[in-house]
Amino acid sequence: MRAIRNVLLICLVWVSATGPALAEDGYDLWLRYRPLPVGQATALAAHARLVFIEAQAAGDASVAVAAAELERGLGGLTRHPPVRGSVVADNAIVLAIGPVGAARSFTAQLVGLGREGYLVRSTEWRGQHITLIAANSGAGVLYGAFALLRHVQTGGTPGTIALASTPKIMLRVLDHWDNLDGHVERGYAGNSIWNWWILPGHVDVRITDYARANASIGINGAVLNNVNAKADSLTDPYIAKAAAVADLLRPYGMRVYLSARFSAPIELSVLKTADPLDPAVAAWWRDRTEAIYRAIPDFGGFLVKASSEGQPGPGDYGRTHADGANMLAAILAPHHGIVIWRAFVYAADNREDRVKQAYDEFKPLDSTFAPNVILQVKNGPLDFQPREPFHPLIGAMPKTPLMLELQITKEYLGQATHLVYLGPLFEEVLRGDTYPGEPHATVAAVIDGSRDERALTGIAGVSNIGADRDWAGSTFNQANWYAFGRLAWDPYASSRAIAKEWATMTFTPDPAFVEPTVAMMVRSRETVVDYMTPLGLAHAMGTGHHYGPAPWVSDLARPEWNPIYYHRADARGIGFDRTVSGSNALAQYAPAAAEVLAADSHYLLWFHHVRWSDWVPGEQAPLWTALVRHYDRGVAEVASMRSTWARLAPFIDRERFDKTADYLTIQQAEAQWWRDASIAYFQSLNGLPLPPGSNPPLHPLPWYQALRFPDAPGQ
Ligand code: BDP
User: Fold this and answer.
1) What's the Rg (C-alpha) of the chain?
2) Residue 1 pLDDT exceeds 90
3) Separation in Å, CA 206 to CA 22, 28, 213, 697
4) Does residue 383 have an active-site annotation?
5) Is 438 exposed, middle or buried (0-12, 13-18, 19+ CB in 10 A)?
6) What is the pLDDT of residue 347?
7) What is the DSSP string of 313-353?
8) Using CA atoms, how far apart are residues 675 and 631, in angstroms rounded to an integer?
9) Separation of 386 CA from ligand 1 center, angstroms?
10) Which residues, including other chains, have CB under 8 Å from residue 317's CB and lie 6 or more apart?
11) Candidates 116, 175, 353, 383; catalytic one
12) Tens of pLDDT along 410-421?
């Protein structure tokens, strides 16, 4: 008997010791709602005794999930969940849609908030002290609920709240590059979260948590399938599957979009053509579109990658991108749907500098697109590199709505393991100045529509989400999803402030943890640039998998698939001359912007071919010395990230701490690999000695060149 009791006791102790640690596997993201310190929790509980939904808001599905989130969040933070009340009482949280009841005194302010904005105010109503969450829609109320929860978790006081916010960009969308077989292109966090095979019979509860996470940062749309689309996603069975997902996302303010394969009419019907000007083709698309709207009445529209990287498109029939986009736009317009048309094009038979091709093709089409077409432009003219100048189309198409495409998944930045916080990258892009000297000319101002006074605005992030328990492959990768959402809501926000918010909610509010963690996050993007592609280098990654270094690759069929195409290194120098003496890609920017970019040493080798011995003023060193220094600095920074992290063990749970520590160890070895392989290769061309104090690569060049990764994920 006694033995059994002991075993039971041991079990109980074991459960309580491992319980919290097991729960911290990253699944809860930044929505952990762990108890606040006692004083704070008591103060918060005093202001959140009850959740009261005003009559006009009752019955709204988004308000219902807002109330549930408040119960869950405040319950977790205070250990005393507020109760749902039918009569307003002191210290209630009142949820209201529109200028009624408790929100009446804020009528004027509400009008200015638009459909999705919110206000959260401590105020008096019917003699009671309340916290009002008011908006013009249920989604706005939900965003307000999340704002309240964020506020109290990041040090805000509960009794004196005055928050108001409206998203600056209309479409804030995640692009999932998820295939119908569950594989995620450029995905490093496991399989797709959409279980297409089992849908619509069963929708995983995980999709609700996905929607909660997105709503908490204001993301209001998801493209469910890969831009390299299969036609099958437009068949009735797949429409039913997408509809099941849409039904779950809807209360969270999210709309569903689908990537559409341009040749689908040929693949799914008896048609022999997908020519956008052929009436039979348009009729086929109309039939499919109507089928989609019958199943998904608020369907957002189609995302199309056409005549790009071998994908079918209007170019196959001698038609323009506008011909293709406008055909679909006309069909979607009566349903209020839109076409998101990608500008990521470059052609095998075009000998022009690859980074110029999208501009050359799309700029002449400005003003030819239907009003419900938005052109999706990657942040840079090449392809999601650790650093690129902003895309020259941004600012060059004032008559066309442009949607900025960012990549949250780290295809070219160390994939799952490397700790790289992308907030500073996104911020750098958004602050890019398309017309220096003119007001409202930043990339953010073009994208949020303020420059050209545009209503249809959008921003997309290529998702990093998969079926891994921690969603994104690592805890720190979650920060990139978070930062994307927060910057999509407000593209002028500070990536540092966002990192602070995220770290506080994801780990602990203790400044002794948050401060070094945020500092490490904020530096991490420059660090990856340093050890991978310093001083404006780009696309030095291995073929296909884009994982490790392979700057030597020169044998791929298309010239612009080879790293040597981009760095152009030889015995004398390195870099791509894109000035007037070279490809003159610089001329695609406004003259004042071109001047700034040409002089910025971050883009030195992007725009200039430089001799190894040339003095680089900004670096106070000859080019070769400067380059090696950057590689060395990148490796040293990762070492310092590791030691910073090692000191933070006492502050957080074991599981997330250990995984991060392991990943930093991997990152350190790989930063060294990047540095050594790159230096060994460039040295094989220039024959120069390393600057004093710099160590030789660990292996000779052929060792690096022989490495193969046929099974790397995400390809
Ligand atoms: C590249 C990816 C490729 C995508 C392509 C795109 O390597 O997998 O299909 O971009 O954006 O970055 O279409």
Assistant:
1) 27
2) no
3) 18, 11, 11, 46
4) yes
5) middle
6) 85
7) -GGGGT--HHHHHHHHHHHHGGGT-EEEEE-----TT--S-
8) 5
9) 15
10) 273, 274, 275, 276, 277
11) 383
12) 999 999 999 999
Closest CA to 284 of 266, 258, 296: 266
Q: What number does the ligand 1 atom closest to the CA of 308 have?
A: 13
Cβ neighbours for 487, distance < 8 A, ≥ 6 positions apart: 423, 426, 427, 430, 459, 493, 495, 498
715 lines ligand 1 (CB under 6 A): no
CA distances from 374 to 126, 300, 332, 617 (A): 47, 12, 13, 41
Q: Classify strands 118-125 and 128-135 as parallel, antiparallel or unpaired.
A: antiparallel
Strands (DSSP E) along 469-618, which ranges?
Answer: 573-574, 610-611, 615-616
Over residues 18-51, the pLDDT tens digits come to: 333 446 999 999 999 999 999 999 999 999 999 9
Question: 77-136, pLDDT tens digit by residue?
Answer: 999 999 999 999 999 999 999 999 999 999 999 999 999 999 999 999 999 999 999 999
- Averaged pLDDT of the chain: 95
The Å distance, Cα 706 to ligand 1 centre, comes to: 25
CA atoms of 593 and 577, how far apart (whole Å): 17
Mean pLDDT of 557-566: 94
Total-model pTM: 0.96
Asked if residue 250 has its Cβ within 6 Å of ligand 1, the reply is no
pLDDT, tens digit (0-9, with 9 covering 90-100), for 500-523: 999 999 999 999 999 999 999 999
State in Å: Cα 259 to ligand 1 middle.
14
Beta 50-53 vs 92-97: how paired, if at all? parallel
Residue indicated by tokens 């089409």: 365
For residue 546, give the ligand 1 atom closest to its CA.
7
Q: Helix, strand or coil for residue 530?
A: helix
Percent of the chain with pLDDT over 70: 97
The answer to whether 290 is a known catalytic residue is no
